[in-house]
Amino acid sequence: MDKLALAENFEDIFESFSSTGDGKYVFICDIPRDYSIWSKDAVDYFGLPSNKMRGAGEIWQEHIEPESREFYAKLLNDVFIGKSNTFDLVYRAKNKYDKYVTCSGKGKLIRDADGNPRFFAGSIVNHEMGDTVDPVTGLYSRSNLMTLLREYRLEKRRYYLLITGIRNFFDINSTYGYSFGNKVLKEIAEKLLLYKKGGNVFRADGTKMVILMGANNHTLEDVRDSFEKIKDHLQHKLVVDNVHIVIDVAGSILVVNDLSKDDSTVYNSAIYALTHSKEENLSTAYILDNSIFDENTKRIEVLTAVRNSITDNFKGFYLCYQPIVSAKSDKVVGMEALIRWKDEKFGSVSPNNFIPWLERDPVFYELGNWILRTAMTDTKPIVKKYPDFKVNVNLAYPQLQRVEFKANLDAIVKELDFPADNLKLELTERCKMIDIDTLREDMIFFKTRGFQTALDDFGTGYSALNLLTELPIDQVKIDRSFIMDIQKDIPKQSLLRAITSCAFELGKTVCIEGIETAEIRDYLKTNFNVDSFQGYYYSKPITIDEFNKFIEGESDE
Q1: Residue 379 and residue 551: Cα distance in Å, rounded?
Q2: In this structure, how many other beta carbons lie within 10 angstroms of the beta carbon of residue 35?
Q3: Is residue 323 pLDDT above 70, yes or no?
Q4: Same fold flag, 1-130 and 132-295
Q5: Dihedral sign (CA 532, 535, 541, 542)
Q6: What is the pLDDT at residue 556?
Q7: Buried/exposed code over 396-429 (b: 16+ C-beta within 10 A; e: otherwise)
């Protein structure tokens, strides 16, 4: 059938597929006649004059947020004059209740036999009525971002990825509460929408938000300018509930010209760049181009593979265990569970290379639960033979900040029928991000359930003597760096004596990590109140099968 003949009956054709539901609307426009037909659902929801309109582009433009109207008009005009074959834009449109909702419009130009613009047909998705929008900010979700990255890759479209993160958001939540914090996130999202310059805006993980700009319509300077305006506004002009809030925002810009890389690698590269921006406290956006794939290809690929392994039933992950030995008897009294990852392509990868990065990703929560489950499963046979044996498992910030963690922990213990007093939970460095009152409540909860608790890495980072009185923990673990050269370091000796004496007076035990020689063991045992040791002098971290042989060999002596 000649495309021109469609003008006579396209209304009948349209009616056959216009009822899509679920916030999805379709439209078709006869360009020479400037005559359009829209889904009736769109007319009802947005309060349009009719489902059959002339000048529909101009009518719809009045519903679009003012900041996006000019860019919308340009893209639409490019299609109508035949300069572009496609239309693709995310924007907010006002419904009949004068509320702006997030929408995405996509359309395609259909030309006549002579190549002239004939029809423009497409769809509009109202994300307010689906599950593709983040409920707190109203932005596209991370899954939508990954979908769009895939589309850009398949269509060979170059783009820029601007990702922002908040350095001081924990302070805001601690000061004003989580409800207020959500309002702040909503306001931050509004500012990204204000300065997006026609790009697509998404909420990624945590406080991270992303603007995606196609390279066909934007330049690197456009992206830089957007970030600077966002940064300035959040630092100087943000007001929430009549409270002036200062947001310390970090940013990175990924210039994606190499479209051979998979979407996860691209996304993780952006996260890696943002982390660098935060750690280096950069005042401007950290810009990366294809060189990141050349210079850091293996690192990014490893991190991507590690992350993907979590969703692939934890493939490649396994636990090793390092013995914990009594300072009095030199007998094994427990072990610490330590995560490891191995892959056919990358071999064994040290946890130091992926745990700090992975802890910033929501998927770490599932890995943390897997570690707990695996450690208790491996330990249960040992506990049956040695009832006082303890297994230490590190808890990370992403676990403690999740409201469902306590219930999940209870469920795992109940499912495995694991004796609670044989599990010792260690607080790691990043747990300092949780305020002291919340940490105290967590420790009290663990004690009511029968679990023991330990403060790990004492002597580094956030550790301080006042935490011994503030937190109802059972044990202090002294970091190995604290005891290096302690036999010659008088200040370290004095401080260690104060820590161990204070712990003893408060009824807490002390474990010292990093024991590598009999000489340092004997020195510490003789001069300080120490309950247990851990270190390579006794054993490196070993698999559970090796550990079972280790403890059995010790019991035969």
Answers
A1: 12
A2: 17
A3: yes
A4: no
A5: negative
A6: 57
A7: bbbbbbeeebeebbeebbeeeebbeebbbbbbbb
CATH, range 309-556: 3.20.20.450
Parallel/antiparallel/unpaired status of strands 86-94 and 159-166: unpaired
- pTM listed for this prediction: 0.55
The label of the residue with tokens 């305006």 reads: 229
Q: Among 240-249, 262-271, 427-436, where is mean pLDDT lowest?
A: 427-436
How many residues are present in the chain? Answer: 557
Distance CA 542, CA 337 (A): 10
CA distances from 468 to 82, 86, 245, 374, 440 (A): 72, 64, 34, 30, 11
- Mean of pLDDT over the chain: 85
How sure is the predictor about 225, in pLDDT bands with cuts at 50, 70 and 90? Answer: very high
Question: The tokens 């210039």 sit on which residue?
Answer: 255
Question: How many Cβ atoms from other residues are within 10 Å of residue 100's Cβ?
Answer: 17
Taking the C-alpha atoms of residue 229 and residue 231, their distance in angstroms, rounded to an integer, is 5
d(CA 520, CA 234): 52
- Domain 132-295 fold: Alpha-Beta Plaits (3.30.70)
pLDDT of the residue at 465: 64
Residue 81's alpha-carbon distances to 6, 59, 106, in angstroms, are: 20, 19, 17
| Model confidence band, residue 479 (pLDDT cutoffs 50, 70, 90) | confident
User: What band does 462 get if pLDDT is binned at 50, 70 and 90?
Assistant: very low
Nearest to 540 by CA among 322, 319, 318: 322
The span from the CA of 524 to the CA of 486, in Å, is: 9
* Cα 271-272-276 angle, rounded to 5 deg: 115
- Residue 211 tokens read as 């603007």
The two tokens of residue 498 are 């104060």
Q: CA–CA separation, 201 vs 204, rounded Å?
A: 10
Q: What is the pLDDT of residues 379-437, one digit of tens each?
A: 999 999 999 999 999 998 778 878 789 999 999 999 999 999 999 999 876 665 566 77
How far is the C-alpha of 37 from the C-alpha of 29, rounded, in Å?
7
Write the DSSP string, 515-553.
Answer: --SHHHHHHHHHHS---EEESTTT---B-HHHHHHHHHH
Q: What would you measure as the largest C-alpha separation in the chain, in angstroms?
A: 99
Domain locations in the chain? 1-130, 132-295, 309-556
| First CA to last CA distance, the chain | 92
Q: What is the pLDDT of residue 213?
A: 93
**CATH fold for domain 1-130:** Beta-Lactamase (3.30.450)
pLDDT at 6: 43
Rounded to 5°, angle at Cα 281 from 280 and 287? 70
155: its two tokens: 């269509």
The side-by-side arrangement of strands in the sheet containing 52-54 is 52-54, 35-38, 24-30, 117-126, 100-111, 86-94
Considering only 13-17, 121-125, 182-186, which range has the smallest mean pLDDT?
13-17
Question: Does position 449 have pLDDT exceeding 70, yes or no?
Answer: yes
308 has a pLDDT exceeding 80: yes
Q: Which residues face 35 on adjacent strands?
A: 30, 54
195: left (phi over 0), alpha (psi -120 to 50) or beta: alpha
